[in-house]
Design a protein that fits this description.
alpha/beta; Aspartate Aminotransferase, domain 2; Aspartate Aminotransferase, domain 1; 12 strands; seven-stranded mixed sheet; single chain; 15% strand; five-stranded mixed sheet
Length: 387
């Protein structure tokens, strides 16, 4: 099948996946093997040990590469395993420029794990290109970008940031977890590496943990593959099978996520109890025009702040019933959380506040339930908070 000849809805179902040659099975088999028979010492049929490669994982890697419009995909046991592998490409003394409102786990691995190995990090407002340019050094080897960002939903100009990175011979890596390849394909905008937490929208059902990297450059892929095998943060075949099941329905799920998030954002934006809504689909979002040009739709994530106290926000997230108070995102069910106490607790409070991530910020992963039930649920939670 020529994946390049088909649109993404078709690639999601078919790319990297052919009926099994032996049995004709339509769904990708789960190759639950740790090792493989060799025809002679060192002569194998493409697989020798499942940390190095597994047929089910290969199908998923090919599928994800096709969705992102890339040549090479590599899968990992978690999104953090994928991010760790990008950092493995660096050496002591190298410098990284990253957004000042990145995911808390990303901030943690940068500062609490890799700084002690003599990597240096600057966190800046990546929507401010002068700030990014000002942070670049001769030793900068990586510009790390989220777009939309987690949890403030800032939209970054991938073309511009990739150009700045390349001016300094640095790599530009984009975490595309929130947008997914259905809405945004960073390689088309000059990025060198695309990162995903497969746990989120690509898996889509809150039942698997995984990560992925997609690139176009063969040498870069070989370097990533070396660390993938050497470090061993690889997913099992059943996890890969679950993500492959998820990617088949990605387009239809994302359409519903986007429709619901847009409607909920507009409702919140008009609500008297809500001070601010962060969603790139709103026309007053500061990067709405960029999002309209760079993305095919605006995604299923949003954040908001109540016109009230930290305690009121905590009450809201505790009182919802359709929205489940939980970390993570991208499943079919709606989730709600307070980043300052949950997903971004690893970031020092003064840094969070400087980046605009307040204690009372509420983040919502808008699921595919009926929109009227979501609004009613939030309304009763607001009522409880404001009693």
């Amino acid at each position: 099948m020529d994946d390049d000849a088909h649109r993404i809805e078709t690639r999601a179902i078919h790319a990297g996946q052919e009926p099994d040659e032996e049995t004709g099975a339509l769904m990708t088999p789960i190759h639950a093997n740790s090792t493989y028979k060799q025809d002679a010492p060192g002569e194998h049929r493409g697989y020798e040990y499942s940390r190095t490669g597994n047929p089910t994982r290969t199908d998923l890697e090919d599928n994800l590469a096709a969705l992102e419009g890339g040549e090479y995909g590599r899968c990992f046991s978690s999104g953090m395993g994928a991010i760790n592998t990008v950092l493995n490409l660096l050496e002591a003394g190298d410098h990284v420029v990253a957004g000042d409102d990145v995911y808390g786990g990303t901030h943690r691995i940068f500062t609490q794990v890799y700084e002690k190995y003599d990597l240096e990090f600057d966190f800046v407002d990546t929507t401010d290109h002068d700030a990014v340019e000002g942070a670049m050094r001769e030793s900068t080897e990586l510009v790390w970008v989220e777009t939309p960002t987690n949890p403030l939903m800032n939209v970054n100009d991938i073309d511009a940031l990739a150009a700045i990175a390349h001016e300094y011979d640095a790599l530009c890596a984009v975490d595309n977890t929130f947008a997914t390849p259905y809405l945004q394909r960073p390689l088309e905008h000059g990025a060198d590496i695309v990162s995903h937490s497969l746990t989120k929208y690509l898996g889509g059902h809150s039942d698997v943990v995984g990560g992925a990297l997609v690139v176009d450059d063969e040498e870069l892929d070989e370097d990533i593959g070396f660390y993938q095998n050497s470090v061993g943060a690889t997913p099992g075949p059943f996890d890969c099978f679950l993500v492959l099941r998820g990617t088949k329905t990605l387009p239809v799920r994302m359409d519903r996520h986007c429709d619901n998030a847009r409607a909920l954002a507009e409702w919140l934006d008009d609500h008297e109890a809500v001070e601010d809504v962060f969603y790139p689909g709103l026309e007053d979002h500061p990067q709405h025009e960029l999002a309209s040009a760079q993305m095919d739709d605006f995604g299923g994530m949003l954040s908001f702040e109540l016109d009230g106290t930290l305690e009121e926000a905590s009450t809201v997230v505790e009182e919802t019933e359709v929205f489940t108070l939980a970390e993570s995102l991208g499943g079919v069910e709606s989730l709600i959380e307070q980043p300052a106490a949950m997903t971004h607790a690893a970031i020092p409070r003064e840094e969070r506040l400087a980046a605009g991530l307040t204690d009372g910020l509420v983040r919502v992963s808008v699921g595919i339930e009926h929109i009227d039930d979501m609004k009613a649920d939030l309304q009763q939670a607001f009522d409880a908070a404001l009693e």
